[in-house]
Amino acid sequence: MTRTAPVGDELQRMVTFALWWGPYGGGRADDIFVAFGVDTRTFFGRVAAAASSPETDLSAVQRTELLTLCRRRLDRLDGTVQATRSGVSGSGLQVALERSGTPTRRPARTPSA
Q1: For the segment 48-105, what is each residue's pLDDT rounded down to a tens digit?
Q2: How many CB atoms lie within 10 A of CB 54?
Q3: What is the pLDDT of residue 55?
Q4: Which of 21, 44, 75, 76 is in Cβ range 3.0-4.6 Å of 70 for a Cys bridge?
Q5: Is there a contact between 97 and 87 (Cβ–Cβ < 8 Å)?
Q6: Residue 69 near residue 84 (C-beta atoms within 8 A)
Q7: In 3D, which of 51, 47, 44 has the Cα closest to residue 11?
């Protein structure tokens, strides 16, 4: 049986789970699988897509916390974690968002004086 992308209540449960377990790393892989029937990469990809959507009812702080959590977990899975001045970055989150069809925006660069 193939699971389709979550809609409505299931996605909200995923976001709530990630917010609840965020301070502890976002939850264990086996707990995520038991609760949602998906692997860790799929779970955090879906949560990242939801957090990136303006339709998801989140505060700016919650949105930032979720995206940071998802980025860290996805990058750890990909082994691409890099320290930057603004936090943690890597390709795992970008790939997950692209796969979900969520548009991504990059900040405009300003020329150096």
Answers
A1: 999 998 888 899 999 999 999 999 999 888 875 444 434 444 455 555 555 555 554 5
A2: 7
A3: 86
A4: 44
A5: no
A6: no
A7: 47
8 A C-beta contact, residue 21 and residue 76: no
93: closest CA among 85, 105, 108? 105
pLDDT, residue 95, reads 54
Beta bridge partners of 84: 87
The pTM of the full predicted model, rounded to 2 decimals, is 0.65
User: Residue 96, Cβ neighbours under 10 Å: how many?
Assistant: 26
* Phi, psi dihedral angles at 88 (to 5 degrees): -115, 135
Q: How many whole angstroms from its chain centre is CA 110? A: 28
Amino acid (one-letter) located at 71: R
1-15 residue pLDDT tens: 445 444 588 999 999
Is there a contact between 58 and 66 (Cβ–Cβ < 8 Å)?
yes
